[in-house]
Design goal:
The chain has 251 residues and is an alpha+beta fold. Helix content is 18%, strand content 27%. α4 links the parallel β3 and β4.
Length: 251
């Protein structure tokens, strides 16, 4: 029997899906990373700033369609955020008393920053506490491009496998993103009352960092509504915390 011939497109698809197989349940687990390193050693080269097959835009340079890359201060902030994550146990949370039950609802429209594969985009929404510790991920859309969410990947708890993957990479920015955080941490406990940060990462790039928005909010016995100003990649963002609705927010 003749062996089927792989075209360049199909070969690339095979590499992306790890030899044409279904992606691992957690593509960022230690086991999955070790398997990728052994079977596809060049995959480790695909990191921010990589120049194989694509020349990344310089800091502050003009991108396709008139967009502008990260300036030096923004780039340093992203690198510092990723570096900070390497100094912390991303799964460790304080042994504190549970706080008020409640849920945080959010909605927003993503927007292009004219990245490499615009208008296709992927993204993640996650919660951290005021000390920068990872709490939970209520929304992800990425599919095989999960690896392009460089900040979320660095700052999430690897033991947490979010069940909130809403879709693969989206073809454009027409969808309104809506989601809820049920007020619980990644261990299933009601998070203590206090200050938290909603993080949104949007990316249209394979090799460069995307855009990240951070919105502080308070979780407690009082209702809260926030409507932050638009950013380059996140428009019409609205956050509403409703006490006593944690159970209703669970899928």
């Amino acid at each position: 029997m003749k062996r089927p011939r792989l075209t360049g497109v199909s070969l690339l698809a095979c590499l992306i899906t790890l030899a044409c197989g279904a992606p691992a349940a957690d593509p960022f687990s230690a086991e999955a990373a070790a398997e990728r390193a052994e079977r596809f050693p060049l995959l480790g080269l695909y990191t921010p700033g990589n120049t194989i097959g694509y020349e990344p835009p310089r800091v502050g340079s003009v991108l396709a369609d008139g967009g502008v890359g990260l300036n030096e201060a923004e780039l340093r902030a992203v690198e510092a955020s990723i570096q900070e994550a390497t100094t912390m146990d991303r799964c460790l949370l304080p042994d504190a008393a549970e706080g008020s039950a409640g849920s945080l609802s959010f909605s927003f429209q993503s927007a292009t920053y004219h990245g490499f594969y615009e208008p296709e985009n992927c993204g993640a929404v996650w919660i951290e506490d005021a000390e920068g510790r990872y709490v939970a991920t209520p929304l992800v859309w990425a599919g095989v491009r999960l690896r392009n969410l460089f900040v979320w990947d660095a700052r999430r708890c690897r033991a947490d496998t979010p069940d909130a993957v809403s879709s693969a990479t989206l073809p454009d920015h027409s969808m309104t993103h809506e989601g809820q955080w049920d007020g619980r941490d990644h261990m299933g406990r009601v998070a203590p009352d206090g200050s938290y940060v909603l993080n949104i990462e949007i990316t249209e790039d394979e090799f460069n960092y995307g855009r990240r928005v951070q919105v502080p909010f308070d979780k407690g016995p009082e209702a809260l509504t926030l409507m932050p100003d638009d950013s380059e990649s996140v428009l019409d963002l609205k956050l509403s915390f409703a006490p006593g609705a944690a159970e209703a927010a669970n899928p």
